[in-house]
Amino acid sequence: MILLNIANQIIKEVQGGVHTVESKFSVEYIYSLIHSYRASLIRAQFSRSKRIHPLWTQQFFPEFDADLQDDDCVRKFQVPASIIMNEQTNGYLYIGDVTGNCAYKQLNSRAELSTYNQHRVSNKGVRIIYSDGVLEVYGNTDISAIRVDGVFADPTQIPTFNADIDNYPLDDDTINQMKAMIVKSELGMEAQTPADFKQDQLDITAAQSK
Amino acid sequence: MFGTDFKRILETKYDKTYSAFLNSTKQNDLVSEALTASLLDGYRMLQREEAFADMSNIIVTNKVFLVNNNQIYLWTLDITDVTFSVLVVTVTTRLPNNLAIGDSVTLQNIAGFVAPTLNGTAHAVTAVTSNTFSFNIAAISGTYTANTGQLVSHQLGGIDKLVPNFNYLLATKQKYHQSIGVKIIGATNAQPIVVTVDKRNNLKTGEFINQSGIVGNTNANGNFYIKKLNNFKYALYRDKDLTIPVSGNGSYQGIGVVSRIVYKVGTPVFSSTKIDSFEQASISNPKYERGDGFLKLQPSDQTCIEVSLDYIKVAPVDIDVTNSVIELEDTYSIEFLYYVMAKAVNLFAQYYRDQELYQTSAIEIKQGQQ
């Protein structure tokens, strides 16, 4: 199911089956709820099953940006954030060459990176660390193309994802759970509260809105 | 039903014998007000098929307009001055004209000029400033009467750029070319043309795209449906079902760009909601707002190619209670005419403080709304 259809289903559910251009719920707002609830549900499911559903993942091919390179010892690529599954597991399933056959060693801290860089054996392989939206690749400064498979926090940020056509990266069962949770937790009260479009410093009441 | 029939039934409804006397002029004024109020009521009630059916002749749907500067006028423009000098007529408008060179304009109700009157003929705009525009004409006689005339039509290639008979907006659909940040690096001279781009992208089979800037294989410039072949290649087709392939007409020699054609329904944005980050317009979430006489289309930093409007027209035919020639049902449904009648009776009762008639006509209006 595409993202817009999920959002429309949620809006229709709270608005009695009608979604017009003057709906009080902006589709963009519903999108933001969908992304954050997807992250929560994926984390919860992972903590139960220790398994990542293949429908949750996307492929990302970062573009090489020469302006981003500020250190001769490292190659840097901008990569969207992933969903952190737990203390040990981030959402990047594969980071490696574009063929998908050669994964690079993922490190979790600068201390670990420092140890690897100074060790006479481990400093031979390609190792990576993700920090502040940037993926740093050590051990081979000739790399100009990499591939990242992962469960990304905002799937619409992946350039190859087409939100109007591609299915939203979540399995159907979890989509249904997510819709129910959003309607119940987030929109129940809002649906009952009339929109207040007047800038008069007064909250409109249900009685006034009739 | 003719105007005279309308008058007869109206007089029966407000009980002419016992009520205050209304001559035809007063009746026309009353009916005119009732017609305007009924259109507004009709607009507010447009949620059911039945309501749409009652107003079907005055609802316009999917009417395409071209757009200048991401905005479009919803009514005619008043003219304040017209001058003529060395084959050039310069027209001054009261509000900014939103014209572009090459647009075609038609003027009406200009007084003073004898030959030609300038009225009713399309003129090609040759120069534009904010409130003036010019067009060429061989000669003109007479003296312009100040503050007369309107710009009633503004077109390009026969497609309107102004909505002259606009009353209430129902929906907009806005078309943009969305850059996808890739360059075309190859286009085969074959059938279908297979295009190669320099980067992975999110183009998918069946999408409608625009390509421009290609030298050599110029048949690859234009609007096409695509069939994706791999991450870097797609084939061009004329139709959505991908059955009519596009043929090449030369070898690819120049770098073209590709953009996605996005045509989506817009939602209104209000001044009070602009603080909301989720209310920011984008090509995939277009917005519109009303201001300065314009329908302004957003996102304002992207060029809107065209807009398709659903709207209610102004009443195309006045209800003249003395007219026995114009068939009103050609324009308005019979239910709508009875609604206008009830509205007129209600207004009459309001003016003449006839409490009983006011209440009965209000019930009739309510029944008309159900």
Number of helices of chain A: 5
- Counting DSSP H or I runs of 4 or more residues, the number of helices of chain B is 5
- Gyration radius over CA of chain B: 27 Å
Q: What is the SS-derived class of chain A?
A: alpha+beta
Q: Provide the CATH topology of the largest domain in chain B.
A: Elongation Factor Tu (Ef-tu), domain 3
The helix/strand order of chain A is HHEEEEHEEEHH
How many angstroms does the end-to-end distance of chain A come to?
36 Å
Strand order of the largest sheet of chain B: 12-13-16-15-14-17
**In terms of structural class, how would the helical and strand content of chain B be classed?**
alpha+beta
CATH top level assignment of the largest domain in chain B: Mainly Beta
Account of the protein in words:
- Chain A is of the alpha+beta class and 210 residues long.
- Chain A has helices at 3-14, 27-49, 110-118, 172-192, 206-209; strands at 58-60, 74-78, 92-96, 105-107, 127-131, 134-138, 147-150.
- Chain A folds into two domains: 3-53 and 165-192, no CATH class; 58-150, no CATH class.
- Chain A has a four-stranded mixed sheet with strand order 2-6-5-4, covered by helices on one side. Chain A has a three-stranded antiparallel sheet with strand order 1-7-3, with no helix packed on it.
- The longest helix of chain A is centred in the N-terminal third of the chain and has 23 residues, at 27-49.
- Chain B is α+β, with helices and mostly antiparallel strands and 370 residues long.
- Helix content of chain B is 19%, strand content 36%.
- In chain B, the strands form four sheets. Chain B has a six-stranded antiparallel beta barrel. In chain B, strands 3-4-8-7-5-10 form a six-stranded antiparallel barrel.
- In chain B, helix 2 packs across helix 4.
- Chain B starts with a helix and ends with a helix.
- The mean pLDDT of chain B is 90.
- At the A-B interface, helix 2 of A face strand 18 of B.
